[in-house]
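The following block was generated as part of the benchmark described in Methods. Ligand: nicotinamide-adenine-dinucleotide.
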Amino acid sequence: MGMLDGKAAVVTGGAQGIGLAIARRLGAEGAALVIADVAEGRASEAAKTVAVAGGKAIGIACDVTSPEAVEAVVARCREEFGSIDVMVNNAGITRDATMRKMSVEDFDAVVAVHLKGTWLGTKAASLAMREQEDGGSIVNISSISGKVGNIGQTNYSAAKAGIVGLTKAAAKEVAHAGVRVNAIQPGLIKTAMTEAMPPEIFAQREEEVPMGRAGDPDEIATTVLFLASDLASYITGTVVEVAGGRHI
Ligand SMILES: NC(=O)c1ccc[n+]([C@@H]2O[C@H](COP(=O)([O-])OP(=O)(O)OC[C@H]3O[C@@H](n4cnc5c(N)ncnc54)[C@H](O)[C@@H]3O)[C@@H](O)[C@H]2O)c1
């Protein structure tokens, strides 16, 4: 028996990194998966790896900044698997620069993918879940950067802090319908996003972690699984820090 047997989930930005780890973990617990990513080819490949492990999964193209694309992903999940029970808003980009050098385009791009994308996903999924009248769980991937702010990330920190406010407001709006909305703030996690950092900055950030190491994508995935499952049946509007004690 899997913890999510009979459930269907959408993971945005699920083609690699943390999103792929989330898709694999939810799939291993019995959820049917829609992996939605701007990189269509990688989304299909990712779906194959979930399917090889015994799960049901499809990969589809979706730019989370497009309302039509996000609505289409939710609709496809219901068509393909009969429902949408879990929505993970995970897609993300970085365009780091100090404020002095950051362009307005780079500010807008980051806010659009993280904040608008998460709002669109939360809106579309909660509407569908309310229609289904069987509750649901929405998990939004924020960042510890949204709690403390990072130099060179005024765009990203603002968007990730915005996801916290959005999560709490949405949780209050849809709690009566049994739809739970929570956020996770990962700390330093080993993925392509952090591999793009200069090695000395990565090492410096790793030193700030009380547990003495960067996290693994699966350590975010297990937290998503908990929030998505009935183990978290009375938890909504919360922010879970998964950061090895960094910035507590
Ligand atoms: N890696 C970390 O240390 C860390 C820490 C805190 C938070 N996060 C957050 O976790 C999430 C995943 O990060 P990651 O490290 O796995 O990054 P990643 O770059 O490895 O993966 C991000 C995925 O999102 C997809 N994506 C980008 N723009 C998109 C769009 N407009 N529509 C749909 N998909 C899009 C990419 O194609 C990619 O597959 C992000 O929201 C990120 O901000 C990561």
